[in-house]
Design a protein that fits this description.
236 residues; Alpha-Beta Plaits; 4-stranded antiparallel β-sheet; 6 helices
Length: 236
């Protein structure tokens, strides 16, 4: 049996109806007949799950408005984070976009206080230890600052829980605002908070290609080269 193109031999393995593609002896048993792909501008105060036990506004409400049985968010954004969240019913693509081995880059605009020192920025670019974990090298560039606050362009290819907030916490800064600007080649652009749009055919093709390209690059890239790529750009 194959689920989303991967051979499954474990007894009791499950597949999600209307989401996962299941084949036995090459025959498709069930799967999505019309894959759908949305870009959604998650506002601050929206829970990135399909259900919320506290009854707060959540992605499940967005999915219902989109009329989508089987739709689900690709990854998560914290309750007080905003920005681009992809929503789809394509389990195979979602797995590629969220699994660390594919190294699909996520880009964020981050407001922090106090303004991180040059040494702190260099530490983030080299990879920082936080809460018993170590991050991969990040792209960090200051966009502007005012007094002791700064807006930064931050790009990472990981997706650990509250990772960007915890990275800055480790260097002594607090994230005041965080907005995801892009997932791979898909940009938030001028999509208004709370609005959703269908991805174009070109965007979808580029998104699929980005996961494949990022995986190939990660397999052929040495740690030294990964670090060098992440340190481009400066603190202005």
């Amino acid at each position: 049996m194959q689920v989303n193109g991967k051979i499954v031999t474990q007894p009791g393995a499950r597949a999600r109806e209307g989401v996962d593609h299941v084949r036995v002896s090459g025959k498709l048993l069930h799967g999505t007949t019309s894959p759908r792909y949305f870009a959604y501008h998650k506002p601050d105060g929206c829970v990135s799950t399909l259900r919320d036990p506290e009854g707060r506004f959540c992605i499940g409400d967005v999915v219902a408005a989109l009329g989508g049985k089987g739709l689900f968010p690709v990854g998560r954004l914290d309750f007080h984070s905003s920005g681009l969240l992809l929503i789809t019913n394509d389990g195979a693509l979602a797995a590629r976009l969220t699994h660390p081995r594919f190294h699909v880059e996520k880009r964020y605009a981050v407001k922090v206080s106090p303004r991180p020192s040059r040494e702190a920025v260099d530490a983030l670019r080299a990879g920082i230890s936080f809460r018993g974990l170590r991050s991969e090298p990040a792209y960090v560039r200051e966009i502007r600052h005012s007094g002791d606050k700064a807006w930064l362009d931050v790009r990472i290819a990981e997706g650990r829980n509250q990772q960007v907030r915890r990275m800055f916490e480790a260097v002594g800064s607090r994230v005041e605002k965080l907005r995801r600007e892009a997932v791979g080649p898909i940009m938030l652009g001028d999509l208004a908070a709370g609005d959703a749009r269908l991805l174009t055919a070109i965007e979808l093709r580029e998104l699929r290609e980005s996961a494949s390209t990022a995986e190939a690059g990660a397999e052929g890239r040495s740690p030294r080269r990964k670090r060098s790529a992440a340190t481009r750009g400066g603190r202005s």
